[in-house]
Amino acid sequence: MTPPNDFKLLNQTLVRFRSGAYDNVAYSNTVLTPLVGPIITANKTAAPMKLIRNQTVTFTIQISNTGNRSAEMRLIDSLPAGMSFIPNSILLNGSPLPGASPLRGVPLGTLPVGGSMQVVFQAIVIAIPESHLFQNEAELAYAFTTLEGRIVTDSVMSNKVTLEVAPFLLEAHASLSSPVTFLGDVIFYDLILRNDGVLPMENVIVYLPLPEGFEFIPGSVVIDGVLVPWIDPAAGIYIGYLAPGTVVTVRVAIRLAQMPAETQIPFQAVIEYTVNGTVYRTLANLLILSVTNPTLTVTLAVDHTRTSTRSALTYTVTVINANSFAVDAYLSRLVPQGTSFLPDSVTIDGISRKGASLAAGIPLGTLIAGSTTVIAYQVQVQTGYAGNPNILNQVEAIYTYRLTDGRLVKQNVMSNPVVTEIFAPVITVLANAKPKYYEVERSVFFTIFIQNTGNLAASEITLFRTGYPSGFHLLDPQLNDIQVPSFPLADGIPLGLLAPGSTVKVSYWIYVSDSEEIANESLTQLATRYTARYSYNYEDGTCSGESQSNELILPIDQNME
Q1: CATH number for the segment(s) 40-46+60-160
Q2: Ranges 367-371, 457-461, 485-489: which has the least confidence
């Protein structure tokens, strides 16, 4: 029963009569009957109005009573096929009603005169209807008591809500193997595609625009767990046909090849597909990848940029951790070529580290954020260093840190190079013999070249030789093809001053006589080596050195007949 707005019912009867040609009407008195009862209205809304498969929709029913009697209310809502009620989602005036269901009916209590209430509940789309439309209305059953004590029941329907369901929908969910990366790191981009509609999709292609500094790993595309190395991800990852309800997984590897300008990098794939001849595009969810670049600053300095051999060089390494987190570090490549480490010369932040060896590097331990560590050590330039003749040093710092995803990463950084120019003669001695064997009553011709490839002159340079046994005679010694006196073992042959870039030639013959020593069968070969001893001046000091030649081992012919 729905009473009129004035809650009164007017009633009056009339009688029509005719007398001859005369027609007339006679009216009775008016009877006024007051009406009692609730006036229930229900306004139903839904959000969102356009749905897809597996999407949740929220229904809101606003109920009011503009009558003159309170009513006991009960909500009944039979959802359309393809839509399922979400348990425990009912709210009455904001308060939950656990266990209640609109399909069975929800007791709402008493709605007083002039009062209102709000009912909210949720449902989920589990199937798409052929019409692609959902229509729904709620029923409000109520009961009230009349003035005479009678209980009257009735019901009203809410307005009808029409919801549109998309006939096709491509669901794309992306994820990254890690939320953080670093230079040179490889990250996997994973994408799950699902056709949530009722229509098939054709020519499905995945495009992943790469931000600055990133590149695809060739041959890394994996579709449904199968490696597809021939697909070039830069040109798009072709999926092809996607039937309704089908799920496809895609994985591709990307690498950070160059540091980008930004540290928060967005990734968002674009999926292109065709339905009924029309091309559509869908965006995957946006992902943000953090780029970290934890580096140490390593500065190397040396106390001398010019020195000579056998001098000591002091290297100072300054390591600065400007990062916001700690790293574990050690130094390596500390002793440059042409030098040797001076024991017990290591200091760290001014504290001596006796017994430390540089062979395995210098462990620095944990360097806290914002810290500076200073390491000093000494090396000695080796005598006769035959280098550039410069001493080049560039130390390496190896450090490890842990990413927020738990991965432990080891990185390295090189210091600036420092060069010390070495001033010294570099003497090389090269010997040769012809023929390369000894024979009785025959001679062997020896030629020795002494060269200074350094940048200082060598003075008082003398060439010494090993001795020869009895029966071997040194003949015709020459210096630069000029006859000179024979040089005994103890004295050698003086070569004078050997300027940088110059070469001296010494030559002689060894004649093998027929002697008892040669007849000794135990003597089957003879070794010969030369030593050049020299001195030189650097600044106010005098240094000395020596260089050895290659060794000549010549067999002796055993046929003494």
Answers
A1: 2.60.40
A2: 485-489
pTM over 0.85: no
Q: Copy the structure tokens of residue 304.
A: 């001398």
> Span 159-181, mean pLDDT?
91
Is the Cα torsion angle 475, 478, 484, 488 positive or negative in sign?
negative
Side chain identity, residue 349: D
Query: 124, 82 in Cβ contact below 8 A?
Result: no
Nearest to 267 by CA among 202, 201, 184, 172: 172
CATH topology of domain 170-291: Immunoglobulin-like (2.60.40)
Structure tokens at 489: 């073992």
Instruction: Mention every residue, 6+ apart, whose C-beta is less than 8 A from residue 270.
Output: 206, 207, 208, 209, 281, 282, 283, 284
Q: Is 259 exposed, middle or buried, given 0-12, 13-18 or 19+ CB atoms closer than 10 A?
A: middle
What is the per-residue pLDDT across 91-134, written as a single tens digit (0 to 9) for each? 999 999 999 999 999 999 999 999 999 999 999 998 888 888 99
Q: Which two tokens stand for residue 57?
A: 């929709």
Q: Which two tokens stand for residue 74?
A: 């009960």
CATH 2.60.40.740 positions along the chain are: 170-291, 296-422
The token duo for 209 is: 């625009």
List, by residue range, all CATH 2.60.40.1530 domains of the chain.
Answer: 427-555
* Whether residue 162 has pLDDT greater than 60: yes
The enclosing H or E element of 518 equals: helix 516-519
* Residues 6+ away with beta carbon under 8 Å from 162: 133, 134, 135
Q: Which three-class secondary structure string do you get for 169-234?
A: CEEEEEEECCCEECCCCEEEEEEEEEECCCCCEEEEEEECCCCCCEEECCCCCEECCEECCCCCHH
Tokens 């790993």, residue located: 217
pLDDT in tens, 469-482: 888 899 999 999 99
- For residue 557, give every residue at least 6 positions away whose Cβ sits within 8 Å of its Cβ, in sequence order, or none: 437, 438, 439, 440
Q: Cα(313)–Cα(339) distance, rounded to whole angstroms?
A: 9
The type of residue at 415 is S
CATH code for the part of the protein at 427-555: 2.60.40.1530
Helix (H, G, I), strand (E, B) or coil at 501: coil
Residues 55, 125: Cα–Cα separation, whole Å = 6
d(CA 490, CA 504): 20
- Nearest CA-CA partner of 421 in 547, 302, 320: 302
- Residues in a beta bridge with 465: 530
CA 46 to chain centre: 45
Instruction: Tell me if 38 sits within 8 A of 152, measured CB to CB.
Output: no
Q: Residue 414 corresponds to which tokens in the numbers above?
A: 């090189």
| Tokens 């339905």 sit on residue | 275
**Domain 296-422 bears CATH identifier 2.60.40.740:** yes
Q: Yes or no: say if 101 and 87 are a contact pair by the CB < 8 Å rule.
A: yes
pLDDT of residue 1: 45
Helix (H) or strand (E) holding 115: none
Q: What are phi and psi of 518, to 5 degrees?
A: -70, -30
